[in-house]
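HUMAN: Mind sharing a backbone?

ASSISTANT:
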Amino acid sequence: MSAAFLREALLAAAQLGDVIFFAEHGANAWLAPPGDTAAFTQALGRLLSTPALRARLGEGARVTAQGRGWDAIYDGLFEEYARVAACRREDRAA
């Protein structure tokens, strides 16, 4: 899904599975409750008829995907290592 987000392709989805961990209704996707075909159809209709909404959600999806890429993961991991190392130094100094 993050590949679709990176291409600004996936804009409508059901609120289930991995989607709930990164899709935010109105920010990077237009979400519908699981199994609610009417709501999903309505979401698709709104996206098809509102180019500005598609563009805004697409940009939000791209930004979300970039923040979940390997560079961001490594940066977060290194920050966590630095935080743990600093805590250990403080513990030794105490």
